[in-house]
Write a structure and sequence with these properties.
Blueprint: H1 78-87, H2 91-94, E1 98-99, E2 108-112, E3 118-124, E4 128-139, E5 144-154, H3 157-173, E6 177-179, E7 182-189, E8 200-209, E9 221-230, E10 233-240, H4 247-264
Antiparallel strand pairs: 1-4, 2-3, 4-5, 5-10, 6-7, 7-8, 8-9, 9-10
Biased composition (Polar residues): 66-75
Biased composition (Basic and acidic residues): 167-185
Signal peptide: 1-23
């Protein structure tokens, strides 16, 4: 299976000067939402930054990911690669988000090993002929919301189905697992939204902590990850939301994003 997203704990260099914290949202998704909201939500009543778990600088010196990243396609089908690039949402399509680094076109396969560690196995994802992941962020005074969309083209329906199934199986077997220095706990299947045209939808939710350069770790962060499949195409949305913003409103951004992806397939 592909990676969930580039590691958020290693992608906060731009926030270092402001001393911002990492955070996320995790709410049940019930149905297809409206168009992307004009903001990630209003500040939660009574919320105030504590400064705990602040990531002063990426622990790896600013490298974005352990997964291959860049503008050069690593899939085998360049026409499909171009199509996936049109499916993945741009910052403009998110409306109030800004681009956050280069697209990721890697096809490396990741597996959950016996110790519940998410690791690359040195192969490409079976049947994955093209993939484009695109990253955005929304900066706020005290924190930032991170998000990404991805579009994957598989050679067969069976291969596309396996991509979703691999996440289901990993969540069931290892609700607590690691991805490098990132730690995920309480990972489970969430309630899936209605995605127009989708033949299959899976939602993953849980909490994550990330390392900081001062040797500490961020506080646990909620996240939501939506995958939807139509035929041989799988689209994905990952959303990690500023904790000082209304999570119920912020989840609308994830629903709107998956609906926008589905409208283009």
């Amino acid at each position: 299976m592909t990676v969930r997203t580039r590691k958020l704990g290693l992608r906060v260099a731009a926030l270092a000067a402001a001393g911002l914290v990492l955070t996320a949202c995790n709410d049940d998704l019930t149905d297809a939402g409206p168009a992307a909201s004009s903001a990630a939500g209003s500040p939660t009543a009574g919320a105030s930054p504590t400064g705990k778990g602040k990531a002063k600088e990426p622990a790896n010196g600013g490298k974005p990911s352990t997964r291959p990243s860049g503008g050069t396609a690593t899939g085998t089908d360049k026409a499909a690669q171009a199509k996936m690039g049109k499916l993945a949402l741009t910052a403009a399509e998110w409306e109030t988000y800004a681009a956050d680094g280069d697209d990721d076109t890697g096809t490396a396969n990741y597996v959950m090993d016996k110790s519940c560690a998410f690791v690359p196995d040195g192969t490409a994802v079976k049947g994955l002929t093209a993939a484009v992941a695109r990253f955005v962020k929304q900066d706020h005074e005290s924190d930032t919301t991170f998000a990404s969309t991805e579009a994957d083209q598989f050679a067969s329906v069976a291969d596309a189905r396996q991509e979703l199934q691999s996440f289901r199986e990993s969540d069931q077997r290892c609700p607590n697992h690691t991805d490098g220095d990132d730690k995920y706990t309480g990972v489970h299947a969430g309630k899936a939204p209605a995605v127009p045209g989708a033949e299959e939808v899976y939602v993953e939710e849980g909490k994550a902590t990330y390392p900081t350069t001062d040797g500490g770790r961020t506080d646990p962060r909620d996240f939501v990850f939506i995958l939807a499949r139509k035929g041989t195409v799988v689209v994905k949305v990952f959303l990690d939301v500023d904790p000082n913003f209304n999570a119920a409103t912020s989840k609308d951004d994830a629903r709107a994003a998956i609906a926008k992806l589905a409208a283009k397939w």
